[in-house]
Design goal:
By secondary structure, the protein is α+β, with helices and mostly antiparallel strands. Helix content is 24%, strand content 30%. The protein is built from five helices and ten strands. The strands form two sheets. It has an eight-stranded mixed beta sheet. A two-stranded antiparallel ribbon has the order 1-2. A hairpin with a 2-residue loop joins strand 7 (147-158) and strand 8 (161-169). The two termini are 32 Å apart.
Amino acid sequence: MSHPLDRAVWNALTTRLSGFVTADSDVRAVRIDPEVGIFVSGADAGSGTVRAMADLALRHPGAGMVERTGGPMDALDLPGVEVMNRVPLVQMVCSALTAGGPDLVFETLTEADAPEMLALAILTKPGPFRSRTRRLGPFIGVRHEGRLVAMAGRRLRVDGFTELSGVCTHPDHRGRGYAAGLSRAVTGEILATGEGAFLHAFAGHDATIAFYRSLGFEVRAPMTYTILK
């Protein structure tokens, strides 16, 4: 049997995040609400499923697929849907945080913070972030003189695992330990529930991978992020 994280998007959108899928999703293919995220996925690589995924991608543009590299759903071509890029990722998991880390004063972000969260994500590009992505949270953040300068939160949830995501810091406030402190806080909360934490990072970003290793994450598997037009 495959690991639940091999198909994290499908497993999340058909279980714990099923409330976020579009109304035209079905048992073969699912598309997350475009205002929440970019994900589209399918039950298998059969022709009927692939056509259903293509229909969702065409009706809701700006979709993307994340699948285990070399797996049965990796590098699918959806009829009529242009592939803009295929980006290699690594999936990392954590079962215990490393010792240390600075004390950090942060707050839980709310709907009132949504415009600032979106602006910070657009500026720093931590990964796909839409106008209602924060609803996958909770997210936490750090303010400086009343301005949101760093945040981190949760995204995908599958059986036994929750994803750390949306970690970003304003360029003027980097080097202060905000990303590490917020990542530790979110990961610690996930682990306290008895689940494991996971995340996705760009495979070519050695510094980012080293940063998460310093917190206790280890590379589990290669993944492919397929960006659809």
